């Protein structure tokens, strides 16, 4: 079937002209190789079999297994956009703005004090004090919200954490995928708070995404080793950062250490599943099994952290909290 008037043939202007279904005001003689409908330049998608329309491309993507589908958001080079990394940076920056609003606007909630974490917030002493004072002091969600707030006296605290997240988060998200990357980030923040619960003073308070960032350091090191890359650079960077953590004043080395160890633990099932997939061959079934193993490993890390939180809360006594 001809897609348009042949060269030298008479064309009747009054005859109905083919138009793009999505853009009826555009005449086009190019047709989709799959559905044979007219397709304008904006709706054309090149493929190995010729030009396809947008609707046929979407239908084909839906028919593929989830792990084989093309990324929904890509840059001009066709690479997946690390949306999870950008969203975390955006949320953290927004929370920092809300911190300042709490200080500058009368009656605005004090986000800084509402989100910071202290071992008291996950101790059984908090439950006892809540009964005595009538105020809820047991607030375990602060173990995660503390990763969203940063020092207001030193904006560099936020800038450094977000800069590192931007630099290495995009690489890790590309390897893991958005969902597993977010899980790794959240678990590392959680693990940093668990280390603070065990290693810091009961009345101490911590803020910042450093624990989560150190978890990303660990994951990048593990992934680099798995891919056979030269990891000497990241190793030196980790050593230097830990040196500053232990030497610098006002730095929660406990949170850094906990985040790093959790990052190692959380990235281990990812690396093992990828290694198993490489040896068994990449098929839909082996990919599903690898995905299940990865999420199972991440789930076990989460359960371990919850159990440690429960145990750490039992070890804090009222005398340590009240300073008696």
TrEMBL record:
GO MF annotation: an example: peptidase activity
Transmembrane listed as a keyword: yes
Biological processes annotated in GO: proteolysis
Compartments reported by the entry: Membrane
Principal cellular location given in the protein's record: membrane
Residues that span the membrane, as ranges: 80-101, 147-169, 181-199, 205-222, 234-251, 257-274, 295-316
Record keywords: Hydrolase, Membrane, Protease, Transmembrane, Transmembrane helix
SUPFAM superfamilies per the UniProt record, alphabetical: Rhomboid-like
InterPro entries xref list: Peptidase_S54_rhomboid_dom, Rhomboid-like_sf, Rhomboid_protease_S54, Znf_B-box
Domain B box-type: 15-72
Topological type in the membrane: Multi-pass membrane protein
UniProt entry tagged with the keyword NADP: no
Similarity section: Belongs to the peptidase S54 family.
Name of the protein in its database record: Membrane associated rhomboid family serine protease
Species of the source: Enteractinococcus fodinae
């Amino acid at each position: 079937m001809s897609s348009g008037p042949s060269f030298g043939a008479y064309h009747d202007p009054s005859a109905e002209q083919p138009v793009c279904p999505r853009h009826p005001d555009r005449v086009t003689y190019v047709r989709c190789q799959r559905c044979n409908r007219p397709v304008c330049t904006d709706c054309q998608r090149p493929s190995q079999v010729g030009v396809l329309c947008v609707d046929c491309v979407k239908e084909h993507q839906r028919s593929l297994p989830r792990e084989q589908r093309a990324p929904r958001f890509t840059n001009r080079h066709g690479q997946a956009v690390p949306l999870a990394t950008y969203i975390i940076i955006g949320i953290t920056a927004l929370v920092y703005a809300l911190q300042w609003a709490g200080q500058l606007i009368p009656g605005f909630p004090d986000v800084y004090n509402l989100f910071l974490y202290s071992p008291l917030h996950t101790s059984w002493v908090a439950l006892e004090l809540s009964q005595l004072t009538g105020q809820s002091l047991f607030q375990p969600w602060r173990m995660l919200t503390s990763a969203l707030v940063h020092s207001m006296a030193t904006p560099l605290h936020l800038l450094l954490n977000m800069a590192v997240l931007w630099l290495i988060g995009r690489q890790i998200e590309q390897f893991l995928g958005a969902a597993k990357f977010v899980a790794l980030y959240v678990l590392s923040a959680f693990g940093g708070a668990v280390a603070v619960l065990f290693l810091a003073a009961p009345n101490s308070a911590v803020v910042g995404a450093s624990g989560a960032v150190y978890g990303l350091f660990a994951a990048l090191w593990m992934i680099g080793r798995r891919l056979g890359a030269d990891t000497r650079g990241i190793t030196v960077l980790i050593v230097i950062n830990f040196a500053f953590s232990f030497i610098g004043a006002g730095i929660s080395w406990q949170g850094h250490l906990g985040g790093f160890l959790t990052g190692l633990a959380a990235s281990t099932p990812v690396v093992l599943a990828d290694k198993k997939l490489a040896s068994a061959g990449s098929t839909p079934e082996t990919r599903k099994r690898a995905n299940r193993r990865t999420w199972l490993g991440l789930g076990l890390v989460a359960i371990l952290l919850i159990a440690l939180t429960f145990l750490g809360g039992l070890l804090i006594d009222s005398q340590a909290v009240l300073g008696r």
